[in-house]
Amino acid sequence: MAPVPISPINVGHIDDVQELRKARPATIPERFVRDMTERPTLATALQPPDTVPIIDFSRLVKGNKDEYKSEMLQLTRACEEWGFFQVINHGIDLSLLESIEKVARDFFVLPLEEKQKYPMLPGTVQGYGQAFVFSEDQKLDWCNMFALGLEPHFIRVPKLWPAKPLKFSETVEVYSGEVRKLCQHLLEYIAMTLNLRTDFFEEMFGVAVQAIRMNYYPPCARPDLVLGLSPHSDGSALTVLQQGKGGSVGLQILKDNKWMPIQPVPNAFVINIGDTLEVLTNGKYKSVEHRAVTHKEKDRLSIVTFYAPSYEMELGPIPELVDENNPCKYRTYNHGEYSKHYVTSKLQGKKTLEFAKVESKKPT
């Protein structure tokens, strides 16, 4: 039986990291201090010769034949070797990126009493607070979150949509509509890298589920002791990350068993493959473990969109991607069941994906 999450509202004011930052405690509360094996190494390391691929979206959409071919090869490499890439020239108005960042920051600087009108509900990841908290002794992330379900409309919880700041809801609606179109287009090109029809994923997904989460990481006096976000892979098909301007570099991915920082590219989105796409491609394209670290002096804001199939859909490896050389690695399952399993599980690397593996037993 799945554990019942503790509502972040009950975790207590002392565990709201923005309030902690204001109080400037002499030591980091034990609830946030990671075990030695989990602590981030913050020493400045030389950048690896290889960096996360950058995809020029405009070259896919309207490039000449050579540009298109080159970009498709880059996209294939990004999906096969990295599971992460950055997209530039994505066609979304830069003023909209600024607007969503502004309303997100304006929300997080509201008084605590105002933000607590929208508490994260037990058993869900919608609302304000800390997500994926299941026990009183669990280590907490140095992060405040605000998350909303967007599409289909029945997953929305209207009472969690804030009245302040002004234009918050309106901005989220417009922004999310544009990001949704980007996800649809990216999946068309990803389908082509797999020699599938361009509309393959659109047909398979039905009315795609979409959610947004805003993460705020205040500065931390001892960034070597805490994590901004625990290591995990995403349960989505695609995740779209907008990194706020002027903040610290916090995103790290696990590459060749080493944590590698993702240097933000101005006005780019960071895209990563989620567990769902790993299952559908039978492991050809893998979801990648990632985490966030904090900074001693700088804060960081990120805005994350999750895009996944309808909850009604039965998912499993695409038959065209299963053969003698690549036998079936995952079972067929209901996506709604998997989503429920994901949001009621502690963030712990890629452990949630065991739900779908052929050798794994269905959780009870």
Write a structural description.
This protein is of the alpha+beta class and 364 residues long. The chain has a single domain (8-356), classed as Jelly Rolls (Sandwich), CATH 2.60.120. The protein has 10 helices and 14 strands. The protein has helices at residues 8-11, 17-23, 57-62, 65-82, 94-108, 112-115, 168-193, 200-205, 275-280, 335-343, and strands spanning 54-56, 84-88, 127-129, 144-151, 209-217, 229-232, 238-243, 251-255, 258-261, 269-273, 290-292, 300-308, 314-315, 333-334. The strands form 3 sheets. The chain has an 8-stranded mixed sheet with strand order 1-2-10-7-12-5-4-3. A 4-stranded antiparallel sheet has the order 6-11-8-9, with no helix packed on it. α5 packs across α7 (168-193). The longest helix is centred in the middle third of the chain and has 26 residues, at 168-193. The protein is globular and about 60 Å long. Residues 207-309 form the Fe2OG dioxygenase domain. It comes from Populus trichocarpa (Western balsam poplar). InterPro entries: DIOX_N, IPNS-like_FE2OG_OXY, IPNS-like_sf, Oxoglu/Fe-dep_dioxygenase_dom, Plant_2OG-oxidoreductases. Belongs to the iron/ascorbate-dependent oxidoreductase family. Keywords: Iron, Metal-binding, Oxidoreductase, Vitamin C.
In short:
This protein is α+β, with helices and mostly antiparallel strands and 364 residues long. The protein is 28% helix and 19% strand.
In whole angstroms, the N-to-C terminal distance is 5 Å
Examine the coordinates and then state which fold CATH places here, giving the name of the CATH topology: Jelly Rolls
The CATH homologous superfamily is termed B-lactam Antibiotic, Isopenicillin N Synthase, Chain
The CATH class: Mainly Beta
For the biggest sheet, the summary is: 8 strands, mixed
Number of strands: 14
Helix content: 25-40%
The fraction of residues assigned to DSSP E strands is 15-25%
How would the global form be characterised? Answer: globular
Let me know the average pLDDT.
87
Structural class determined from secondary elements: alpha+beta
Biggest β-sheet: strands ordered side by side in the sheet? 1-2-10-7-12-5-4-3
Per DSSP, the total helix count is 10
Radius of gyration: 20 Å
Number of domains: 1
CATH architecture classification: Sandwich
| Low-pLDDT ranges | 1-13, 360-364
Keywords: Iron, Metal-binding, Oxidoreductase, Vitamin C
Protein name: Fe2OG dioxygenase domain-containing protein
Family: Belongs to the iron/ascorbate-dependent oxidoreductase family.
Domain Fe2OG dioxygenase: 207-309
